[in-house]
Amino acid sequence: MEIIFYHPTFNAAWWVNALEKALPHARVREWKVGDNNPADYALVWQPPVEMLAGRRLKAVFALGAGVDAILSKLNAHPEMLDASIPLFRLEDTGMGLQMQEYAVSQVLHWFRRFDDYQALKNQALWKPLPEYTREEFSVGIMGAGVLGAKVAESLQAWGFPLRCWSRSRKSWPGVESYVGREELRAFLNQTRVLINLLPNTAQTVGIINSELLDQLPDGAYVLNLARGVHVQEADLLAALDSGKLKGAMLDVFSQEPLPQESPLWRHPRVAMTPHIAAVTRPAEAIDYISRTITQLEKGEPVTGQVARARGY
């Protein structure tokens, strides 16, 4: 079994060694320009077109949970990968726990009004504030995939009312499920904290705009953990300035690194991190990939395959 690996920043030698230990019968090599030798599987992130074009691969693994970048490239260069070759994404590989940590910590930060207390501290004001109740602090999750399910699971322990909005109906215990555009307004109307975990598709680009934000209760919060292109930044800032939104926590941006001139840097009710909410954990990624390849070789059912036409 031949496996080729390409990632512009990962330590290729470590990955090659780890994969060969996990798959003793495989020969793994770092792909370099000019390498046209046969391969059965490819592990990639931002691959050049020539790496995959014309290859008769059994499968391709994208080294991340998001596949929008590689799908965009495949759309622009259909010769890059035959439509019959399955594409897989990393389903969890440690990212679920990281998303849980991030989401729970931020929801509790707002629920306990730590943002307000930080503002009071900056003014040297000693002022206890009224508490929020859990009943009024409904959390709505847009996107009900693997990571959305993990976040919902972690928030259940804290007693917040939970709801999710997705393409298909979910039957998660303790979570209200809303489906499609026709149920979006009902989902938003009672959502105090909006968590975005949607996939990046043509249908979801710019979805967090003034029309959507206006349907949230006054004083709502937005937590974006998916993609920066989901958010119309000017609309988000306008909602913050008007008081429609009380705060926003952003991990992803339409342009990264975020330009110094962006007003998001200076807005007092915007907090941010540099796209670190959930990163690939190499050891757990190796475990998932090696297990999936073994299942594919045995003809067993697998999970994590991308529906290329759907975009995730």
UniProtKB/TrEMBL annotation:
<dbReference type="InterPro" id="IPR006140">
    <property type="entry name" value="D-isomer_DH_NAD-bd"/>
</dbReference>
<feature type="active site">
    <location>
        <position position="227"/>
    </location>
</feature>
<dbReference type="GO" id="GO:0005737">
    <property type="term" value="C:cytoplasm"/>
</dbReference>
<keyword id="KW-0670">Pyruvate</keyword>
<feature type="active site" description="Proton donor">
    <location>
        <position position="275"/>
    </location>
</feature>
<comment type="similarity">
    <text>Belongs to the D-isomer specific 2-hydroxyacid dehydrogenase family. GhrA subfamily.</text>
</comment>
<feature type="domain" description="D-isomer specific 2-hydroxyacid dehydrogenase NAD-binding">
    <location>
        <begin position="105"/>
        <end position="277"/>
    </location>
</feature>
<comment type="function">
    <text>Catalyzes the NADPH-dependent reduction of glyoxylate and hydroxypyruvate into glycolate and glycerate, respectively.</text>
</comment>
<keyword id="KW-0963">Cytoplasm</keyword>
<keyword id="KW-0520">NAD</keyword>
<dbReference type="Pfam" id="PF02826">
    <property type="entry name" value="2-Hacid_dh_C"/>
</dbReference>
<dbReference type="InterPro" id="IPR036291">
    <property type="entry name" value="NAD(P)-bd_dom_sf"/>
</dbReference>
<protein>
    <recommendedName>
        <fullName>Glyoxylate/hydroxypyruvate reductase A</fullName>
        <ecNumber>1.1.1.79</ecNumber>
        <ecNumber>1.1.1.81</ecNumber>
    </recommendedName>
</protein>
<dbReference type="GO" id="GO:0016618">
    <property type="term" value="F:hydroxypyruvate reductase [NAD(P)H] activity"/>
</dbReference>
<dbReference type="GO" id="GO:0030267">
    <property type="term" value="F:glyoxylate reductase (NADPH) activity"/>
</dbReference>
<keyword id="KW-0521">NADP</keyword>
<dbReference type="GO" id="GO:0051287">
    <property type="term" value="F:NAD binding"/>
</dbReference>
<keyword id="KW-0560">Oxidoreductase</keyword>
<dbReference type="InterPro" id="IPR023514">
    <property type="entry name" value="GhrA_Enterobacterales"/>
</dbReference>
